[in-house]
Amino acid sequence: MIDRGLVDKNNMRFNASFQQRVAEIVKLTKDETCDDIEFRMKELFFSNPFQIKAELDEMLTGIVA
After folding, report:
1. Segments forming the whole domain that contains residue 58
2. Which end of the chain is more exposed for a tag (fewer CB within 10 A), N or C?
3. Contact (Cβ atoms closer than 8 angstroms) between residue 22 and residue 13
4. How many domains, the chain?
């Protein structure tokens, strides 16, 4: 990421324009992502209410990645 100019190698932080772009993307996708998580949680809980940890971890990793 340093070589692409996204991270300032002197203080190991994202550059300001990249931070701004991430903030814009989060604003645009926040509601849709929250709705998706809520829907998946309902499905997961109703199908297997007592053993959801592994499935929850996999689901959240898939959403974040």
Report:
1. 7-64
2. C
3. no
4. 1
